[in-house]
């Protein structure tokens, strides 16, 4: 028999151990899942591409996926830091795929072939096919809602994203173009000095042809600084016009009598709500009886070739202009309402 005093001590010690273990297990159960950034590689056309994917700790059953395509002289990791999409993804519950280039892109100054050699891009070749492959890989891995996959590009990445919209309208519900140009335009006349060497009508026809049997009305949001000396502002405006005309050709093929008018449905003016914020003009085009825009164009006055808003961290100073409106937030507001459909898109209610 254990003496009473010793028995009490033993029981107290056991109780303390159990309480500690139980408390730890409760704490572990209560701790939210951790966010993570996965890395991987993907081979297409004999070339190996790298990618990063930000996965919030808490995801809905079928999350959305946003594909971010960086610009020249930039890496996926730098774009992840600069754009500050991760906090938005954490809050809204979607996955972000940051694609990176191949050894060929390295030789092109980390520029994508949608800018350097758009004629080589198709559903089965070039960077467009590789990015689509990475998109499907990550979408399958995280059980993404296939109707809610979006692509967003900066500079060279915006030219590349336009290629994704042209060749893969059956994969991407909507696209975003920041400081880029029209589908298939390439370098001449759209890098450095602006030269109107390719009419929006001709480029619109090319995009419509590229969409082929998968063609549908594709919502597009665009950002551009009117002081951009790298990709002239006029090229960004040509991109908006090209997608308006491409969508109108699709509407005509669908027998829709009312095209998207040349005049915007709404024009707004504002100032970014930050210290020394840039003024901006936002133009919006809508379809009849549609509760969300089909096209939206943001002109950031006085902004150069930078991501509008983004990280104020010194490491991102060469990529971002925190004085501009927050492009990442605004793009997600635009994307988050759009579900891809066979002929176009369905508008979700505003959050």
- Number of discrete helical segments: 10
Rg calculated over all Cα atoms = 24 Å
Placed side by side, the strands forming the largest sheet appear as 1-2-4-3-5-6-7-10-9-8
Low-confidence stretches: 1-10, 13-22, 24-28
Task: Give the CA-CA distance, first to last residue.
Answer: 68 Å
Strand content: 15-25%
Q: What best-fitting shape do the alpha-carbon axes yield?
A: globular
Q: Would you tell me the overall average pLDDT?
A: 91
| Oligomeric assembly | single chain
Order of helices and strands: HEEEHHEHHHEHEHEHEEEEEHEE
Q: Which class best fits the helix and strand makeup? A: alpha/beta
Largest sheet: 10 strands, mixed
């Amino acid at each position: 028999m254990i003496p009473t005093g010793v028995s009490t001590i033993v029981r107290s010690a056991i109780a303390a151990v159990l309480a500690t273990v139980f408390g730890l297990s409760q704490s572990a159960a209560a701790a939210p899942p951790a966010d993570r950034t996965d890395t991987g590689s993907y081979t297409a056309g004999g070339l190996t591409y790298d990618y990063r994917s930000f996965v919030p700790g808490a995801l809905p059953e079928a999350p959305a996926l946003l594909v971010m395509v960086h610009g020249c002289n930039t890496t996926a990791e730098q774009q992840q830091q600069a754009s500050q999409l991760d906090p938005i993804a954490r809050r809204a519950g979607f996955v972000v795929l940051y694609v990176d280039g191949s050894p060929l892109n390295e030789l092109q100054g980390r520029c994508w072939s949608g800018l350097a050699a758009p004629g080589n891009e198709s559903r089965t070749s070039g960077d467009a096919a590789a990015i689509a492959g990475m998109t499907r890989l990550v979408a399958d891995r995280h059980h993404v809602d296939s109707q809610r996959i979006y692509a967003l590009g900066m500079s060279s990445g915006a030219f590349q994203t336009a290629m994704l919209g042209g060749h893969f309208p059956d994969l991407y519900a909507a696209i975003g173009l920041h400081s880029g140009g029209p589908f298939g335009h390439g370098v001449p006349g759209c890098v450095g000095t602006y030269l109107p060497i390719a009419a929006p009508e001709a480029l619109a026809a090319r995009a419509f042809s590229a969409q082929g049997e998968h063609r549908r009305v594709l919502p597009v949001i665009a950002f551009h600084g009117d002081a951009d000396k790298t990709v002239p502002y006029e090229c960004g405006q040509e991109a908006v016009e090209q997608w308006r005309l491409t969508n109108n050709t699709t509407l005509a093929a669908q027998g829709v009598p009312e095209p998207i008018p040349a005049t915007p449905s709404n024009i707004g003016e504002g100032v970014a709500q930050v210290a020394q914020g840039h003024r901006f003009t936002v133009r919006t085009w809508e379809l009849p009886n549609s509760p969300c825009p089909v096209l939206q164009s943001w002109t950031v006055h006085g902004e150069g070739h930078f991501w509008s808003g983004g990280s104020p961290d010194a490491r991102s100073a060469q990529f971002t202009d925190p004085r501009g409106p927050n492009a990442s937030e605004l793009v997600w507001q635009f994307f988050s309402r759009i579900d891809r459909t066979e002929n176009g898109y369905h508008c979700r209610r505003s959050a």
